[in-house]
Write a structure and sequence with these properties.
This protein has 240 residues and is of the alpha+beta class. The chain folds into 2 domains: 5-77, Translation Initiation Factor IF3 (2-Layer Sandwich); 83-234, Four Helix Bundle (Hemerythrin (Met), subunit A). The protein has helices spanning 16-24, 42-51, 83-106, 110-138, 150-173, 179-214, 217-231, and strands at 5-7, 32-37, 56-62, 68-74. It is globular, with a radius of gyration of 21 Å.
Length: 240
């Protein structure tokens, strides 16, 4: 796919996103899509990336003819670009691990599920440390119109997540542990995690993104390096 160029220069603006979606939807890992546009495709790429849950990255350039050339990658094929990119990827990694725990438990494979649960808790601790000890302390937030401080709300929800995670980890250690005793706990935490991640990425991430974007380059680079070092103990990523 990376050897061929998809020419969308004559595609109507109203059809660009749909045409681009069908061009890249089956793009395998380790490959790229090369696409030509008549105008700046940044908004189309951003909109499609949102549709695809932030799974795309791209490089833009201009051709001698004045068209725009986009080389599109899958996000996992390129390194994280900043702290929030790294955190979003870690959200997905942790979600994949938790999904595996649920499936293993449902199949009665409790030994395997217990092992993944231990890795999940370790990874979660690293993830929360970046949000609490790094971003939460470096970037101040103010209460919203309802009087709720987004950072304080995040810390409270993280405490609940860790409490529920500890309960599940302990349940796996019980001599009479079985699917019927653990699956309900996993279902409760799954629902809580989903709502928490959505709230966090809608309320806190824009604030953090703006603050980081306005920080000096040296400060941004230092923050990114510290975040990656804190996430490192949880690596390598859980396999697909």
């Amino acid at each position: 796919m990376s050897e061929d160029v998809c020419d969308l220069t004559n595609t109507a603006a109203s059809h660009l996103q749909t045409a681009l979606f069908y061009e890249i939807k089956d793009m395998p890992r380790g490959t790229t899509a090369s696409v030509l546009f008549a105008g700046d495709p940044t908004m189309v790429l951003r909109s499609l990336n949102l549709q695809l849950r932030n799974n795309l990255r791209w490089d833009l350039s201009r051709t001698m003819a004045g068209n725009w050339h986009a080389v599109i990658h899958r996000a996992e094929d390129v390194p994280p670009g900043d702290v929030l990119d790294a955190l979003r990827r870690d959200h997905k990694r942790l979600d994949a691990m938790f999904s595996s725990i649920i499936h293993l438990t449902d199949r009665g494979q409790l030994v395997e599920a217990r092992s993944v649960m231990q890795a999940f808790v370790a990874g979660l601790q690293c993830h929360l440390a970046v949000e609490h000890d790094l971003l939460g302390r470096a970037i101040r937030t103010v209460p919203n119109a309802s009087g709720v401080d987004p950072t304080a709300a995040m810390v409270s929800e993280h405490g609940e997540i860790m409490t529920q995670s500890a309960m599940i980890a302990a349940a796996f250690e019980e001599p009479d542990a079985d699917t019927s005793s653990i699956s309900p706990l996993l279902a409760i935490l799954a629902g809580y995690l989903s709502k928490h991640e959505q709230r966090e990425e809608l309320s806190l991430f824009p604030i953090w993104s703006s603050a980081i974007g306005h920080a000096p380059e040296v400060a941004r680079a230092d923050l990114f390096a510290r975040a990656m070092a804190m996430l490192e103990p949880a690596q390598p990523p859980f396999p697909d």
